[in-house]
Write a structure and sequence with these properties.
alpha/beta; 636 residues; 19 strands; nine-stranded mixed β-sheet
């Protein structure tokens, strides 16, 4: 399948390559390589066309690393695994594939064996790209370094110029400014907002940041999301040089990133590590960025691999939606109680979007008229959901909670970017959705402590707690924060995620330890936070709800988890266990398992073992009541 980018703009620095060659994998198209076709008078040795092409390949995070530049007189093939450098046009050039038309006949077999349909399906592109060397940084590593540096510079300057700010305010303000600029760059590269909008503000001589505020107000009017709502950060004093430098580093030509090609899933993983650190103010009101205590105790931040997210999403959500109509699915509620930057919510959202596309494609044409406001068929004859339908799915089905306010902001931003993945016509949308291009997700993704309710303060004198202590505990009452879900459905239909694995003795106060001992059952001997999340999740799903977590597998064997193990087995609350015989998380020595739990009493238990990502073996699929195979033996 060859996809032509019809929205391209002449002389654009950020437009997509002219052609994306895509292979169909299952029900989705997967981009394999790009082709940028230039007019014959454009020199293919010039820095600009080469840099533009390589930026796009690099921003695919290794998924589409090969890009071809051609004007039909020449063919130049580049490997975009490495961060492109504007002043090094030979970087990544594959010399054997730097040829003119006079050599096409001589080298035809080589060209065919790399770029024909049969060759691509046989893996020729990945073989050509090879693997990135240990010394070469990947997209996520490069972007993490850049965004961390932007935060460091901005935090130090804002702390110096705005002495009245408290630590939590500084963290929130810096996050909001960076998120706004990154989101706007995404809108530009998606051709939703005009290219160069943000960069044009670097031409202002004085008061650059204050000139940006009216732009933020206009974006708030158009999009009605969280990011551009009026915020105290707009009143801060920021020097022109600082904000200009920040903007320039996000824009062409200094930026190596094509933001619309960076998948929201990848951006979320980058933010996951980014949010493992916080800004701290010294006594002299100097900003320092330090690793969070809980991250330090757990040995770092380890984002969940995409295939794990996909596995859990499919095992929990598919049984809930299989064969159902969009109207029925609109009532489904999915929650991640420790959502972080939103990787599981994005995975669930993508799964729902794909299901809807397939459902609309499968119904008879006579029925399609009923759903004309839900989808359309594009020029490539693909089903695409309208912005309105994508927004409805996001608002109706997805919920999340995290104790870190900055994480919830990133989760919402990542979901917005996923919503915009298929693009839309802004002018047409404004006719029908003025002020509502983006759904307000502040009622869906909330900041709070998933494990501690307001009864934490029962019999306590509230005046004894400082504002900082109240913020740290950040109590959260599920039934009050999500009243419709708990009043109408008695809980969520699906809970998914990768809860933190931290021994509570390392991070909790004595008051918090007493609270968990008084309010949770599975608090014997050593206590790890993932155990608390499992118990809490069993309380906030409804009677037919499902839970899908990846957690340490030691809850299956260790003595201090025997109470939870006994309760889950006796209540037939477990449907499936997937044991990993390898380390799922890079640089983290923890043996893990996916566990699918239910409140509706499962009569069978599947146990799978994975020796590699591709290799999965069913160990047992026994009835839990089988007397010849006691439950304890099955689960162990």
């Amino acid at each position: 399948d060859v996809h032509r980018e019809f929205s391209q703009k002449d002389n654009s620095t950020t437009k997509k390559p002219d052609y994306a060659f895509r292979a169909k994998v299952d029900i989705k198209f997967k981009e394999t390589f790009f082709v940028e076709a230039k007019a014959p008078w454009v020199k293919l040795t010039d820095k600009d066309p080469i840099y533009q092409a390589k930026r796009y390949a690099f921003s695919s995070h290794g998924k589409t690393p090969i890009v071809i530049l051609t004007d039909f007189q020449e063919l130049r093939v580049f490997n975009g695994l490495e961060k492109p450098i504007y002043d090094n046009p030979l970087q990544g050039l594959i010399s054997d594939l730097d040829i003119t038309y006079t050599s096409y006949l001589e080298k035809w077999d080589m060209i065919w064996n790399l770029f024909s349909k049969e060759a691509v399906y046989s893996g020729s592109i990945s073989n050509l790209a090879g693997t990135i060397s240990k010394n070469t940084k990947t997209l996520d590593q490069e972007f993490l370094e850049d965004i961390s540096n932007w935060r460091k510079v901005l935090a130090k300057h804002i702390a110096l110029r705005n002495q009245e700010l408290k630590t939590n305010e500084l963290n929130e303000a810096v996050q909001r400014i960076i998120d706004r600029l990154i989101f706007l760059r995404n809108l530009e590269d998606r051709e939703i907002e005009a290219e160069g909008t943000l960069l044009s503000y670097t031409n202002i001589n004085q008061g650059v940041y204050q000139h940006l505020i009216p732009l933020f107000r206009n974006l708030d009017d158009d999009y009605n999301g969280l990011l551009f709502k009026q915020h105290f950060s707009e009143e801060l004093s920021i020097d022109d040089k600082v904000i200009k430098d920040l903007i320039k580093q996000m824009c062409y030509p200094l930026s190596p990133y094509q933001f619309d090609e960076i998948e929201p899933e990848i951006l979320g993983r980058i933010y996951e590590r980014f949010l493992g650190s916080k800004i701290r103010l010294t006594d002299g009101h100097t900003a320092k960025v330090e690793e969070k205590p809980e991250v330090r105790h757990s040995g770092g931040v380890y984002y969940t691999p995409q295939y794990i997210v996909d596995h859990i999403v499919k095992d929990t959500i598919w049984p809930k939606i299989d064969g159902k109509s969009p109207e029925e699915i609109s009532k489904l509620t999915i929650c991640d109680p420790a959502c972080g930057s939103g990787s599981f919510l994005i995975g669930a959202y993508d799964f729902l979007l794909q299901y809807h596309k397939n459902w609309y494609a499968s119904i008879p044409q006579t029925n399609q008229k009923k759903y004309k406001s839900d989808f359309y068929i594009n020029s490539d004859n693909e089903i695409k959901l309208t912005l309105k339908k994508r927004s409805e799915i996001l608002k109706n089905n997805l919920f999340g909670v995290d104790i870190d306010r900055e994480a919830t902001e990133v989760a919402i931003m990542s979901l917005y970017l996923k919503l915009l993945d298929d693009g839309f016509d802004k002018g047409q949308s404004e006719l029908f959705m003025k002020g509502h291009i983006l759904p307000d997700m502040t009622d869906n993704v909330k900041c709070g402590n998933s494990l501690i309710g307001s009864n934490y303060y029962n019999d306590k004198d509230m005046s004894l707690f400082s504002d900082e202590e109240l913020r740290k505990v950040n109590t959260f009452d599920w039934n009050k924060k999500f009243p419709l879900i708990f009043n109408q459905k008695k809980g969520f239909d699906v809970i998914i995620g990768n809860p933190p694995y931290i021994f509570t003795r390392e991070i909790l106060t004595e008051d918090e330890k007493r609270y968990f001992n008084d309010n949770y059952i599975f608090t014997q001997f050593k206590l790890n936070t993932y155990i608390l999340f499992i118990e809490k999740s069993m309380k906030i799903i409804n009677d037919h709800g499902k839970i899908g977590f990846i957690v340490p597998n030691n809850w299956l064997t260790l003595e201090y988890n025997s109470l939870m193990r006994k309760s889950i087995i006796e209540n037939k609350a477990i449907e499936k266990i997937i044991l990993f015989n390898y380390q799922v998380f890079d640089q983290a020595s923890v043996d893990t398992a996916i566990c699918i739990l239910t409140r509706s009493k499962s009569n069978t238990l599947e146990i799978w073992k994975k020796n590699t990502i591709e290799d999965e073996t069913l160990v047992t699929n026994n009835p839990i009541e089988n007397k010849n195979n006691p439950r304890k033996e099955i689960i162990l």
